[in-house]
């Protein structure tokens, strides 16, 4: 994108210090690696804090957690899962309904590390252009996954899903899953910016639907301070979600980023030298949210 | 002006429809590819055995979420999840009997661990598991068939003397020894694979096969007469009539016994010198 700053966050670093300008990024990486570590200490050291993988797990032999999207697919095949899977999926569903659906993408999903690395390199080496496709493509794919699942009666998506393939690979043995990691990396690096997470991934598309009503959101609460440095746009994985909240005051939009596709990664909070952004509640959205409801909420 | 505006709206609408159609077609092709791929991978290779209680393969592939909790709760590291590049459906649990067979834990922890019921929790006794069926697939290399004493499969079988029994046959080669033939019985074999694991040959002569490969099926219309007779407790067709011999007075025939018995009056010869056929009455309209 033309006019984006070459080193976003430089001003914030100068003003707020390294920690102030990287806080959420660091916490996010700790969360991603921490989740992975929890699953890995079992197989590596024999300390079974968590068993299983992200599809379904059992923590400390009591807490069941299941991937709600996967359980939805199981139901689409015509099989009714047992109670423990339903409870597990319910807990996860409730968590992401509160914490912002796509918080999964930025705080938990292992593929995010890969695509963030690709994006960092893309920015670093100023790789421009590539294929252009709609960000709505992921919803088409989400629909296609459910249709194929219902028609074939098998969890077809799980045969190719890079998200579960890589996480399961890390915990149970990779096999050729590294090939999938490389494919996603190259896709994001050379084919299109933020291609996988921002345009294609049906898992993220599912979680974005939860984000439409989740109370925890990023808000451009101090948007009047904005000096149009574009740092937030440069780092945002879903740039389209910022504009209505940050620049929509005249059009009656509130400062809260309502789009379900905001991943609550908090990177915009980090890189803003003027502290325009902060985590806030969806309801804390002063200007005429009714206008926003129509054009902004839909992802 | 108004004309231009209408034109603009129309082309916008046209553009939208074209874009939508393009996306729909593209995604449709992807969906078709995914569907076909899933059909291709739904065939389980014969050497891969599913854990106990696994639903029939087509249902299993819709119910198993590939979480690996069964793998974790297997105390013997028998189970593993299929990795990318293997021919088993990605991420699903299976074991290879020749490497590590199922030890048939009485508490069946793998089934209990399954959160979705892909491993059926209705399986409460491991003896009722049917992971596959052991088949003595190569009688030419099995040394028992050569008349040598082996019986390793018989001895390691956890469902002892039920799933595998020994049948004695005469050794036609030496003409004086017995051959001990292992026979698998599908009403007791769980498919645990311990026989395949312990077969002493370089390549096992006895192998656990998926049920649908291992079992034949009698035509549904087919009835075995003796079974039906047993069920009914008697003949299903014309009742058996005691055979009657049309013999001259004083003579009796004992089938399978002493044969023709002369019970004529002592001293007298009941047997006529020549058979007088016309005086013998035909009884019971017999043939």
Question: What tags apply to this protein structure?
Answer:
heterodimer, A: 299 residues, mainly alpha, Alpha-Beta Plaits, 3-stranded antiparallel β-sheet, two-stranded antiparallel ribbon, 54% helix, 7% strand, B: 287 residues, alpha+beta, 8 helices, 27% helix, 12% strand
Shape label of chain A:
globular
| Number of strand segments of chain B | 8
Percent of residues in beta strands of chain A? 5-15%
- Note the main sheet of chain B: 2 strands, antiparallel
**Beta fraction of chain B:** 5-15%
- Helix vs. strand class of chain A: mainly alpha
> Distance between termini of chain A?
21 Å
The total beta strand count of chain A reads 5
Q: What value does the Rg of chain B take, in angstroms?
A: 35 Å
Strands, helices and their partners?
The complex is a heterodimer of chains A (299) and B (287).
Chain A: H1 10-45, E1 50-53, E2 56-59, E3 63-66, H2 68-76, H3 83-99, H4 103-107, H5 111-124, H6 137-152, H7 162-172, H8 177-191, H9 195-200, H10 202-211, E4 216-219, H11 231-235, H12 242-247, H13 267-271, E5 278-281, H14 289-295
Antiparallel strand pairs in A: 1-2, 2-3, 4-5
Helix pairs in contact in A: 1-7, 5-8, 6-10, 7-8
Chain B: H1 2-40, H2 57-63, H3 69-73, E1 80-81, E2 93-94, H4 109-113, E3 133-136, H5 152-156, E4 164-170, E5 178-184, H6 194-198, E6 206-209, H7 211-214, H8 225-232, E7 251-254, E8 259-262
Antiparallel strand pairs in B: 1-2, 3-6, 4-5, 7-8
Could you characterize what this model shows?
The complex is a heterodimer of chains A (299) and B (287). By secondary structure, chain A is mainly α. Chain A has helices spanning 10-45, 68-76, 83-99, 103-107, 111-124, 137-152, 162-172, 177-191, 195-200, 202-211, 231-235, 242-247, 267-271, 289-295; strands at residues 50-53, 56-59, 63-66, 216-219, 278-281. Chain A has a three-stranded antiparallel sheet with strand order 1-2-3. Chain A has a two-stranded antiparallel ribbon with strand order 4-5. Chain A is globular and about 55 Å long. The mean pLDDT of chain B is 85. The interface between A and B is large, with 58 and 45 residues.
